[in-house]
Amino acid sequence: MSGLRIDYSGLPGLREDADVRTARRKLRRRTRQRYVAYARGVAWALFRRAAFLACLAVLPFFVLIRGGTFAYHRTAIGTWPALLLSVMATVLLLGVYAWRAGRRLGIRGNLRALAIRVGAGLAFVYVGYALVYVASVNVKSDDLRMEYASIHPLLRVASSALILADPGVVITDVGRTPEDYWLMGLPENEASLHFEQATGYVHALDLRTVGRPEWRNRLAELAFWALGFHSLRHVGTADHLHVSLRLPE
């Protein structure tokens, strides 16, 4: 009995049905593979487009702030000329954006020139806004809000950009006096950039880290570092992110 074989060769209909089922399985597998490859291609294209648009959105802020800190540290032109220089560079970049967008959309002549002027106006309006205004929800107290104008302009613009990206940012400390260190039970740090500097501005501020996701704290620290500031996570009276603008070389 173990050597018994059943010969189906005389049943061509069964063999044909098996071949059809195999072909169908292969077709379905190839179809799924094509769909998966197409979905991956679409997802990758969307990711690249989103990354490109994100870079376009971030680049003007980078040019504005990093350009300002670079000019401030590497030249002797002073606070406001350094900021004005970075604003002009940002205006030029926005003009390129407007020109390129107008060209792609087929906008010519006066409309393109108007778009360039609008881009320039937006840059000046934003800088003016960042220099004079901070929302009450982004400062620890009304007293700190009153001290906002004492912060170095480049640090104000950078803080405003961070608040724009992360509305939950809270400034907890700005200027200090020797008495403040005594009240906090800390030794006086004569080199502290929380003191008013020769520029007439405070060159440091502290940001709240408690109660915030750690990844946001780390990202804020990295962002300030990339923009030319000194950022340091440390514990004084409480855990916080210390951000400062070093004096020109």
Which structural class is indicated by helix and strand composition? alpha+beta
Q: Mean pLDDT, nearest integer?
A: 84
State the CATH class of the largest domain. Answer: Alpha Beta
Output the strand order for the largest sheet. Answer: 1-2-4-3
Indicate the CATH topology of the largest domain: Muramoyl-pentapeptide Carboxypeptidase, domain 2
* DSSP E strands, number: 4
Major beta sheet summary: 4 strands, antiparallel
Number of domains: 2
How does CATH name the architecture of the largest domain?
Answer: 2-Layer Sandwich
**Helical percent range?**
55-70%
Uncertain runs with pLDDT below 50, 5 residues or more?
none
Task: Give short descriptive properties of this protein.
about 250 residues; alpha+beta; about 60% helix; flat; 2 domains; 4 strands; four-stranded antiparallel sheet; Muramoyl-pentapeptide Carboxypeptidase, domain 2
Structure description:
The protein is of the alpha+beta class and 249 residues long. It is 60% helix and 8% strand. The protein folds into two domains: 87 residues, no CATH class; 113 residues, Muramoyl-pentapeptide Carboxypeptidase, domain 2 (2-Layer Sandwich). The protein contains seven helices and four strands. The relative contact order is 0.09.
Briefly say what this structure is.
By secondary structure, this protein is of the alpha+beta class. It has two domains: 46-132, no CATH class; 137-249, Muramoyl-pentapeptide Carboxypeptidase, domain 2.
Map the helices and strands:
Elements: H1 12-74, H2 79-105, H3 110-132, H4 142-146, H5 153-165, E1 171-173, H6 178-183, E2 204-208, H7 214-226, E3 230-235, E4 239-244
Antiparallel strand pairs: 1-2, 2-4, 3-4
Helix pairs in contact: 1-2, 1-5, 2-3
